[in-house]
Amino acid sequence: MAMLSIPQQLCQSLLKLAEKYN
């Protein structure tokens, strides 16, 4: 489960960063 949750957290973090920079 942890292995699957890590990529999800990364995706969410990247989306948040993208929103900040846009």
Describe the structure in your own words.
By secondary structure, this protein is mostly helical. Helices cover 91% and strands 0% of the residues. The longest helix is centred in the middle third of the chain and has 20 residues, at 2-21. It is rod-shaped. The termini are far apart. 0% of the residues are buried.
Summarize the structure.
The chain has one helix and no strands.
What's the arrangement of secondary structure elements?
Blueprint: H1 2-21
Question: What key phrases describe this protein's structure?
Answer:
22 residues; mainly alpha; 1 helix
Helix tally equals 1
**Helix/strand order, N-terminal first:** H
Global structural class: mainly alpha
Uncertain segments: none
Outline type: rod-shaped
The radius of gyration is 10 Å
β-sheet strand percentage: under 5%
User: How is the main sheet built?
Assistant: none
Mean pLDDT across all amino acids: 86
End-to-end Cα distance:
32 Å
Q: How many individual β-strands?
A: 0
Q: Level of helix content? A: over 70%
